[in-house]
Amino acid sequence: MRLADLPTPQVLVDQARLVANLDRMQALATKRKKRLRPHAKTHKSPAIARMQLARGAMGICCAKLGEAEVFADAGCDDIRLAYPIAPFNAARLRALMNRARLSLIVDHQDVADAWSAEMIRAGQTLDVLVKVDVGFHRCGIDPATPDAAAFVRHIARLGGLRLRGLLSHAGHAYHSTSTAQCATIAQQEAEVLRDLADRVRALDVAIEEVSVGATPTARFSAAEAAPTELRPGNYAYYDRSQVALGSASLDDCALSVLATIVSRPAPDRVILDCGSKTLSSDLARGAGHPTGHGLVYPDPESTVPDETLVVERLSEEHAIVRATRDTKLRPGSRVRVLPNHACVVSNLVDCVRLVDGQTVVDSLPVAARGRIT
Ligand SMILES: Cc1ncc(COP(=O)(O)O)c(C=O)c1O
Predict the structure, then answer these.
(1) Strand-by-strand arrangement of the 60-62 sheet
(2) CA 300 – CA 337 distance, rounded (Å)
(3) What's the pLDDT at 172?
(4) Is 44 in the pocket of ligand 1 (CB under 6 A)?
């Protein structure tokens, strides 16, 4: 099938770029002797997870149990849940433990105690990592407090749990405005984790794993001594934010949206058929804060974007694009849009179209989309 035969909007994944992105990150991890555990929330696709595992990834990472269930069904047998799953879900989690090597993060004593009680009752042992807040200020224990190491020791002593180590996510790297700032965040993250691991080891508690993960910091974290594992996710596709953050070039971005101009109500305004239900409402991050809801390629076959086309507003099904009056775009014309944030875009469609130039080579189900519980 040719691209021209597809109705729009469609989420396209450039096969060669995807493969290159997966190869490059695996090569970096292998070179630096780090284990790569990609976060599958970006693609939510068992087919792409298999490509990552075939290249040397030692497992995958998921947020929600529902995602992990999909990947376990597809044969992924080593899954880390880097999200604070509520013990309410114990029965589901225990069932999953029978199908995959599972590990979970904990950062709160009550939650850890509840998981411990559940596991003792079931006669099972759950691998856990303590989530550490390295500056994002979302989840995680505060490593600066004197009792942080004692908290980790408490977890290590709980029945039914097996402490594997420490885990962090430097999500604040997405707010960095320069490559240097991003590098500093990765260095600080590694230093904070090394320091806490040393303090925990001084209490006679083994820390076998130090897991870090975010696409903007991955290239710097790989060079640090402390991390044993990298968990980037977005790198499979990259997007406009990653380009602005310096993690990738425009020509690395594998995911884009094929759209059609459905109206041109004014000479300087064109309407695309991809609204917030396709592009999402996420704005771009990174240096210069790129404006609008995506970068438009007026010729879907070209690799040259047109920055004068600004996706100013989105309705659910419309993208309102400001254009120059001499734009050649007319109703019926097709464009490609590079989204600001690829992970949320793939989550909005049942399948992505794997493309080689103008040929659609496959349709990959986004099998774990919508698995938010
Ligand atoms: C806990 C955790 N680990 C890893 C990742 C992957 O980071 P990125 O999306 O920058 O690749 C995320 C992303 O949200 C995350 O929340």
Answers:
(1) 35-36, 229-230, 209-212, 161-168, 126-131, 101-106, 78-81, 60-62
(2) 9
(3) 97
(4) no
Q: What is the pLDDT of residue 287?
A: 85
Point out which residues pair with 322 in neighbouring strands.
269, 310
* Tokens at 153, concatenated: 């020791």
Q: Answer positive or negative: Cα dihedral of 342, 22, 34, 187.
A: negative
Strands 10-14 and 35-36, how do they pair?
unpaired
**Model confidence over 281-325: pLDDT tens digits?**
999 998 888 899 999 999 999 999 999 999 999 999 999 999 999
Is residue 325 packed enough to be buried (19+ CB in 10 Å), middle (13-18) or exposed (0-12)? Answer: exposed
Nearest Cα neighbor of 163 from 105, 85, 239 is 105
Cα dihedral 320, 325, 327, 330, rounded to 10, equals 60
Distance of alpha carbon 235 from alpha carbon 48, whole angstroms: 12
The best mutation among 24, 39, 41, 80 to test binding of ligand 1, ranked by most ligand atoms within 8 Å of the C-beta, falls on 39
Residues of the chain under the 70 pLDDT cut: none
Predicted pLDDT at 289:
80
Secondary structure (3-state) at 333: coil
Whether the CB of 294 sits within 6 Å of ligand 1: no
Give start and end residues of each alpha helix (H) in the chain: 15-31, 46-54, 65-73, 90-97, 109-122, 148-157, 179-201, 215-221, 240-244, 276-279, 342-346
CB contact at 8 A, 247 and 287: no
Which residue has its alpha carbon closest to ligand 1 atom 12? 214
Q: What token pair was written down for 289? A: 């804060």
